[in-house]
């Protein structure tokens, strides 16, 4: 036994001396695991080798009954809500709150949802009940967000040519449509894009973020001025068509990676810059879950607010409207 203890003592070590080394090793291991988690959790949006074959672009197609959704001659404002096929509950909540026909002038304003397709969800039955969903052939994927906005522009040019203003809104926003109606009446002759346009234009190169854009996709380190927050309005009858024409010069139809750029950057920044369409900033478009207002004329106005939950959209709408009307 004594000999065994002597032999074991030869391999003994000083725990106090080893402790700092163990701490450093564990810290480095944690950093490694965090980095691996970041790589695995951020979706691979862009292709390493871009697909630049024009014939690979899948043209936007609408359901056969698309003509039934065309705007009448009296419609001057089209509100295009970009939604996913499975967001039935959210669409119902919108119809009962800020998107209710009681909230706007139905003779001159039209609200439509633009959805894509999935293999497990069909909006045909819902559309038979409500008649406000423009069905497209866009596959419901994060990287296809720009294609739904493209669908809204194409629809506006083909089926609503007399519309003076086109509001593009994400489904998780609440809108004060009456405020958009007033804006459209005042400024429809001036081609522009109005929204929250005072945003940072630095291209994000951090590969661990959702908005990472590699240099081989967009080589310049700053985007053109663009409008963000999930909602913006294209003012002017010809503005949608001008953006569609500019997309050709932006390689939209030739480059898969270009189509995967952030939707707001692509349409309100890159395409708008190529088309020489001015961007008009308004603080009334809020990124947050509380209203922000802009001073327009002698009164304040709030256009939109972010609302990730559908639990009480009516209260969100009431707060949005209440924020408008106060004197500047």
TrEMBL record:
Q: Any idea which UniProt keywords this protein has?
A: Glycosyltransferase, Golgi apparatus, Membrane, Signal-anchor, Transferase, Transmembrane, Transmembrane helix
Instruction: Give EC number(s), comma-separated.
Output: 2.4.1.-
Q: What Gene Ontology terms describe where this protein resides (cellular component)?
A: Golgi membrane
GO-annotated molecular function: hexosyltransferase activity
Task: Report the Pfam families cross-referenced here.
Answer: Galactosyl_T (PF01762)
Give GO terms for biological process. Answer: protein O-linked glycosylation
Naturally occurring in which organism (per UniProt): Steinernema hermaphroditum
**UniProt protein name:** Hexosyltransferase
- Entry's transmembrane regions: 20-47
**Keyword Hydrolase belongs to the record:** no
What subcellular locations does the record give? Golgi apparatus membrane
Q: What does the sequence similarity comment in the record state about its family?
A: Belongs to the glycosyltransferase 31 family.
